[in-house]
Amino acid sequence: MPVHVIVGTQWGDEGKGRVADWFAAQADVVARFAGGDNAGHTVRVGDETYKLHLVPSGVLYPNVICVLGAGMVINPVKLTEELRGLAERGIDISPDRIKIAERAHLITPAHIALDGAKEAQRGKGAIGTTKRGIGPAYTDKAARVGIRAGVMKQPDQFVEQVKARIEAANQTLAGIDGAELVDAAATASDLHDAAQFLASYLADVPLLVHRALEDDKYVVAEGAQGTLLDIDHGNYPFVTSSSPTSGGAMTGLGIGPKHVTRVTGITKAYCTRVGAGPFPTELHDENGDRLRGTGANPWDEFGTTTGRPRRCGWLDLPVLRYAARINGLTDLIITKLDILSGFDSISVAAAYSLDGETITELPTEQESFARCEPVYESVEGWQEDIMGVDTFEALPGAAQDYVGYIEEQLGLPVKLITVGPARAQTIAR
Ligand code: IMP
Q: Is the pTM of this model over 0.85?
């Protein structure tokens, strides 16, 4: 059986968690390959809502093996809290089914302090990070001074390594105006406890995934963040520090591309972004407010991890074309189509205008991208509530046309459409 990679095509928050949960129903292994607890995957099962930050969404199916890959940066205290929280809700979190790559890197209090201090130092040029220590942890990894998960087998040694990193970070923090130093002693017992708890979850993940593939198992690689947040291919520097695109699934899990038979791109029916950086179709009017919602519903556009209101705008086809290419997409899934119900007409950026020229592809220069103006096409809206619709044919004609328009523009089939947060509110084609 193949590897099925699921990636976000926009700026994250496309609904990857609930889509991974959908495929997990048939999967044997669900593996996160990049990022850390900057991600927030919301999965609704019946009346229960699960907000997952580090644990793959497959955890809600008891037969699925859940993997945290080497491409991730893991805050051990947060992961311990998340696993214990799941256990309290009756989810099986035994080490038989949850595996942490020994080569994943760990986030320490030093990284979190550095993330916050560096963001404050950037002032108006801030990236708008989630302040979870993601960037500094990947910085240490690239500088070859990071702490890898395998060391948690020796909790004392792990705590000593963290203390050494905190001392090094404190030297940097001392030079940043207003930054507070980290007290190594204050977090030592939480870190020790987390290491003791997590040690039994450590595994040789590439070998595990390889054996699963040899045994013809179905492996879902669950992306976090989105294509335009990719460290190489996103809107640098307004990106995260990992590779959330399909290539990242290979390095993050330690598998070769020959195993991948499907790469599914998740796109919201419109666009959102949290944090700073260019966003050509961003709306600053009542349409943007309407897409965002008030925050009263769990699906309104407020960050799962930080609670920040998301910037909202119309669908952007140059972004989707780009994502299709960078990831080698084989198919698309459209989420939150229900949110577009009630608009008289819906705009879609079919191209951009840049320096008097119309372009259909993303410019490579960040500075040019920031100057792109969307060239909109208008499609007919629909008034019906579609949250109860369970077949494509039962959707209003205009909603079917919207999906058909996206398929035609991208040259990709749309395989699933979601029309509400519950598992049942998914239209399969
Ligand atoms: P970091 O990953 O915390 O360093 O944040 C870098 C940028 O990526 C910021 O603009 C964040 O808002 C954004 N970001 C990181 N993770 C997510 C996510 O899961 N969803 C949406 N945006 C994210």
A: yes
